Fold this protein.
Amino acid sequence: MDEPLFDLPRAGLRFDADDEVLARAAWSRLAEPGDAVAGALVDSLGPADALRWLVDAAGAPERAEAVLRRIAGGRELGLGTVDGSPGLAEAPGRLPEVSTGAATGEGPAAGRAARGGAVGLLVAAVRRWAPRLERLDPEGELAVLGRHGGTFLAPGDPRWPSSFDVLGAAAPLCLWVRGDPDLARLARRSVSLVGSRACTDYGVRVARSLARGLAERGFTLVSGGAAGIDAEVHRGALVSGAPTVAFLAGGVDRLYPASSTDLLRRAAEEGGAVVSEAPPGSVPGKQRFLKRNRLIAALSSGTVVVEAALRSGALSTANHAVRLLRPLGAVPGPVTSMASAGCHELLRRGAAVCVTDAAEAAELVGDMGEAAPVRRGESRPGDDLDAASAAVLDALPVRKPAHERSIARVAGLAFADTTGALGLLELLGLAEQRDGGWRRR
Amino acid sequence: MDEPLFDLPRAGLRFDADDEVLARAAWSRLAEPGDAVAGALVDSLGPADALRWLVDAAGAPERAEAVLRRIAGGRELGLGTVDGSPGLAEAPGRLPEVSTGAATGEGPAAGRAARGGAVGLLVAAVRRWAPRLERLDPEGELAVLGRHGGTFLAPGDPRWPSSFDVLGAAAPLCLWVRGDPDLARLARRSVSLVGSRACTDYGVRVARSLARGLAERGFTLVSGGAAGIDAEVHRGALVSGAPTVAFLAGGVDRLYPASSTDLLRRAAEEGGAVVSEAPPGSVPGKQRFLKRNRLIAALSSGTVVVEAALRSGALSTANHAVRLLRPLGAVPGPVTSMASAGCHELLRRGAAVCVTDAAEAAELVGDMGEAAPVRRGESRPGDDLDAASAAVLDALPVRKPAHERSIARVAGLAFADTTGALGLLELLGLAEQRDGGWRRR
């Protein structure tokens, strides 16, 4: 018989686990972001039943399966698509494999206990969730959120963004929001602009220009609140009076990093939002930053990487965009700048479309028909001439007029075609008759 | 009855039109570069018979068809694939349409007389070729070439580059070469690097770096001999002791432009070649520059556009590379630089692969398996950890050691998995035990 994973009978849960909001808030503490086993379980049983089962299962792991069968009854647990295979941790330097673009569930590597299918996944999950049961305090965390004027958002709420549906079981269990909680509305016309913290002056200039241009086009600007490019994106939106949404890796009670605190406060106060799937008090660890990036990629209609080195976390966001089959753009930069090497690698692999200004970004992520003007360069006299007229224009002397016969020979054209072309060029103001011959005008 | 197009009986040809070399040289004066009707005719009849027919046809256009039938006998004239439709002149600002990548004959717009199929094409061609019959002087032009130590190269010569076959009837009728006439050998491992005359310091730096890197990898560097990027490419090759080939739009007797004269002379003297399909004395007009670009695209294994504005002639070379289905690369630059806007447009359309250094250019155009090293950025401790170890590393305190139970809770992992991960991290030198707990190392 297994040892109980924690002594719940003695400790007890310090809150009403029948309350669906409290139970859901508790789950966002129990499970790490993107834990698809938690997502599938909470989806299937509802947060309160799922929590009750976890308490039972943690106290007597050997009964976990039987208890689950009893609670679930005939309900489908939706774990069939959850990938429980142990894998590599997410890493910022891992670029998307374009060939495997399938939007499979973004399941976490569920440890070494993937044996035994869904039951194996659940037993392994109980083992990793149980240590956090002891200190659960969703009431306290909701109170902290309330003190910041925040909103607890759950799936099913009309303000919950349907763009998260693409994440499947790895969608967030809930969202802790400061600012405007209507993420559904904010997401409707939105674009994610991301980039390196260690950015260059060039990257800053491009980020500002893209952010303002997209803000003027009515887009909500989504980013990660980090220093560098992210900060310029949020700032550019605020300057233009557009809403901006920042996804944090840690709790929204702490507007991290310190350099962005004022900016993030303004984002929440001026029509946008600061959002986390982790409850207040959560520390922003590296893996949480990487998991957070899937929310940036999923919320908006598309993502543009403004400036990113090869190890930039922004490439993780790009990776998520590719896996979710969302449009991805990358802004090129000097090939001599390592700060753009990540963007160039995305372009080389064909994972991202080359984006050079706000109009092109809007074409990528905006509505049908929202095409950027075709870049043609300045038009010049003589553009769009037919071949004969172009050849005659080429053959026309600049100063001393030449006879039509000589022009025909130089142009390599029939005499009659030359005469016709000269007439057309005269009409267009490109040729003139002088002293019985022709010259350029 | 038509009026004779010129009075040949009185003027006569001033050279032995039975001499195949002289006749071919004459044809390169009669027809503009890329004239596919001339190409098909000379291919089918041979240059001398084709010239004799032209003389007859020019004297009595109404007999042209009958005479052609008599000369050709049952021979196929190969005009079936020649596009005689009147069209737009080539323009540098016209970017490739990627969807229509078929390598159709690069036929010229043959004027307004495309009616009547092959015969109509030929009658129109006679009218444009005839005016040049009077002043033909292939002996004089060959003598000028000889004074420059040059070589007259015709198809069938083992030194003729087979890479031109892709041009079909629009292949050059002959080549006027200064320097090493073995273009077949020079083309074997070759890359075309092209760009704007109005280049930036950035473009110059990139051109030099690419040219040297590719020269060191054993490539012949092909370009257009122009000022700006082209000149840097030729110079980069010469500095590295690699052969370089310059295609001129005008005759090779005049090493145009003046700023490139010394460079082009060195190219011809130091193992490379300066090449034109137009005879000595030919003036480099705009349409000839554009037609010349097809030779740059066709000779080498692939083309890389180093820096090009939207109106750059380099985009015409890119256009030819796309139509010939040859690999095309483009080097990105700052989006704030209009001098790179043409490259970015090629990348946006998916016409070109993003190329950032010589290794990537070599991967694009070189042999199978000549892959550029994968760009990954510096590796760091903790890369390639499994998910559990990464989470534990994330959860490890930097200073004050924490107990395994607390680490499991922070990491969101089962106790057993945490213990296992700590052991692995200790082995990797990333974690250490201290005071009964664990911390980062």
